[in-house]
Amino acid sequence: MEKLDQFDLEVINALRELEIPVHLRGYEYIKTTMKVIKSNPKAIQRVIKLYETIAEMEDTTPSRVERGIRHALESAESDFLTQKKVLGTDRKLTNSEFLATLAEVVRVKLAGVA
Question: Which of 41, 42, 63, 68 has the fewest CB atoms within 10 Å, measured from its CB?
Answer without folding.
Answer: 42
